[in-house]
Model the fold of this input.
Amino acid sequence: MPGIGLCYEPLDLPKAKFDPARYGAEAGDVLYLCAQSLYKYLPLDDAIYPRIAKEVPRARFLFIGAVGIEPFRRRLERAFAPAGLDAARHVIILPPLSQADYLGLNQACDIYLDSVGWSGGNTTFEAILAGLPIVTLPGDLMRGRHSAALLAAMRISETMADSVDEYVTIAAQLGSDRLLRMRGAARVIEHRSALFNDRSSVRALEEFIATRCLAR
Done:
């Protein structure tokens, strides 16, 4: 299949602004969107967040949870404590949101942190639609390479990490440097049209069915 193999039609972004202060964020915070289902986040990766927070004191990591919230919160508390940090100061777990609020949340955040090992698909598309810089660490399996494939299609490689250490470095640099964030967002906005409404894969599937399947 050509391109990314699917025709993605973007949703309309809401006109009403989403206010993260409703859930405890404060002015001046650097908002990292961590939008995957909580079961995608493995305990072996919990240390990523305090490592970033060490470099970005105003970092806030915004997760979204429906089930398993308290065990996940306790895990992060245990991860932040050895670094001398209070997880409650840096971690916000939002409840499930309406579609409009979720898209508004993307627009309100500064950086999208892809989950390690099992990356985002639709959530990454939505973050790209909102113009967020995407930090990802491609995994060995396909499920850990979706976000990397989208970045590759946009010819953006500077926020694709080769290791956990580089993932932390990229995320911390974006969080510490507003101009760098703005440049990253501008790159996403400039190149995101390569991902949307691409009908080449639809035409290719039609041709395959017509010539390989129906012809039999």
